[in-house]
Amino acid sequence: MTRIKTSAIAWLIIWQAGCPAFAAGPANEAAIRSAWTLYTQQKYAPSADAFEALIKTSTPSARLYYYSAAANKAANRAARARQLCQYITANFSTSPEAGYAAKLFPDVAPQTASSEPAGLPEHLKGKSVDELMQTEEGRRALTEAMNKPSPAASASPSGSATRSSRSSSAARAIERPKDAAFTAEIIAAEGADGITQFVRHPDAGFECSLAAMAMLQRGREILATMIRCPGSQDIYRVRFPNGSTDYEITPAKMEKYRMKDSALWATLIHGAARESPLHSWEDGLTLLTGNRAEKILAGSTTQQALASFIGDAVRQQNPIVCLSTDDDVEPTLVAEYTGYTITNFDPASGMITLRNPKGSNSARFRLEDDPQHKKFEQLNGGVMKMHISIFSRYFKEVARATI
């Protein structure tokens, strides 16, 4: 009965939205970027109209519907925004966008989503998102609360002790510029899959480092502060952490560099990186964090030291990447001379989880004499697990940086 009701609601929303049940295909990324640019310029009604037009000709997706809901909400089209949020929570209940939709309209929240953003001042707690949006104080508090990492997102196995061990500069709150074009939530919605690895401009270190940042809550907050939209149509400025140079990125430069990631924020950062000289593969990590990357040679250290180097970064939620060897190692388990993002390490099993920047387009491998996957396991989306005992055969260098 519940399934029938959910399905009926979903189809009603599609019909009211003017969406064909079988849309033409994936949304046009250039059109999404254009619609989002209008939003960042606070042209909410035109932005909402642009997203509505995309909905009518595109395959339904949580990302597109959430963008449209946010624009409609800002344009004071609350009823339509609520419809879209209902569609997201009914049909994409496990997506990050379902949680964001719940923050826009708590009454459409799935059972697992919190109805109140964490971090609100005491005197504002208990108010709905609609009530908060009615006052300047409420809007500001809501924005700040939504951009803070949740306890679940920021927790690590070592808890508060890990946080306190970081430098005071890393522990400072990140101030979001007034003209920031993106939020950490928007970057989270696309995550590492919003980054495209460019064959014409291979950069083994930068793309896996950008993915590492996009997969961490604090990393996403830092990425969001890099990109500003001062007001001119399609003109953005990117400044890397601790940097003093503003890189102006325009549509003409995107065409020049032939870089068009799935996500606009990734395209802009990619374009800025093309104008900032990178001399070593770990320089991408240095550029994106504002802190000097620390590197070790995997084959010239003990397994214990390697486990400590990787484990410390994972526990402290710092970005860590590695570079595969260009030697002919058999059996083949990794792409040759490619940067990988390390996303997890389990000391108990000794398994390191890694991600190829190509994501779902990555080559797949198999260790024939390991049917129980004790040394190697190929997963989906360019992700794999490799035992630390064979890691140094396939990877030559590992680099990490603090955030």
Could you give a quick summary of the protein structure above?
This protein has about 400 residues and is an alpha+beta fold. The protein contains 19 helices and ten strands.
Structural class: alpha+beta
In total, the number of strands is 10
Give the spatial strand order of the biggest sheet: 4-10-5-6-7-9-8
Instruction: Give the biggest sheet.
Output: 7 strands, antiparallel
| Helical run tally | 19
Radius of gyration: 22 Å
The proportion of residues forming helix, as a percent range, comes to 40-55%
Number of discrete domains: 3
Question: Could you characterize what this model shows?
Answer:
With 403 residues, this protein is an alpha+beta fold. The chain folds into three domains: 2-115, Serine Threonine Protein Phosphatase 5, Tetratricopeptide repeat (Alpha Horseshoe), CATH 1.25.40; 160-289, no CATH class; 294-400, Alpha-Beta Complex (Cathepsin B, Chain A). Helix content is 45%, strand content 11%. Strands 4-10-5-6-7-9-8 form a seven-stranded antiparallel beta sheet, sandwiched between helices. The protein has a three-stranded antiparallel beta sheet with strand order 1-2-3. The chain starts with a helix and ends with a strand.
